[in-house]
């Protein structure tokens, strides 16, 4: 059971853009890591773009399961995991991350924000914490 990516995006007009993301590509070959990370970023944006406001969904993409939650305010979260990772845990993680993100980052920064301009550093911690918890169970 493994988590590969945790992203926070903003679904505005006309398209979705990435606000912050964390990746764990350590299980991939060194030379594949950057292309795998690009694939995960692209897939996260695409899934958030195709999801309605206020919706949750799980989408299978190649050998991954992508879990998306788009809130009514346009803030979206995407977790990319393997097929064995529990869906319920992914949505709990997304709830927690989006609530915390919306408290720490001003809503005025969402439409124009980017990974370079948004200061929210908790994603890497959540990604490793939720990795470890499932490894123990």
From TrEMBL:
Protein name: YKT6B protein
Entry superkingdom: Eukaryota
Stored PROSITE patterns: LONGIN
CDD domains named in the record: Longin
Family indicated by similarity: Belongs to the synaptobrevin family.
Biological classification of the source: Eukaryota, Metazoa, Chordata, Craniata, Vertebrata
Membrane topology summary: Lipid-anchor
Pfam family, one: Longin
């Amino acid at each position: 059971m493994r988590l590969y990516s945790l992203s926070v995006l903003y679904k505005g007009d006309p398209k979705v853009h990435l606000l912050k993301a964390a990746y764990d590509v350590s299980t991939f070959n060194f030379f594949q890591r950057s292309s795998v990370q690009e694939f995960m970023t692209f897939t996260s944006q695409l899934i958030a773009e195709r999801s309605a406001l206020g919706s949750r969904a799980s989408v299978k993409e190649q050998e991954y399961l992508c879990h998306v939650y788009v809130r009514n305010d346009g803030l979206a979260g995407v977790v990319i995991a393997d097929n064995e990772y529990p869906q319920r845990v992914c949505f709990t993680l997304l709830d927690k991350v989006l609530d915390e993100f919306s408290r720490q980052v001003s809503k005025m920064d969402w439409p124009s924000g980017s990974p370079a301009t948004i200061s929210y550093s908790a994603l890497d911690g959540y990604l490793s914490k939720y990795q470890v918890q499932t490894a123990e169970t």
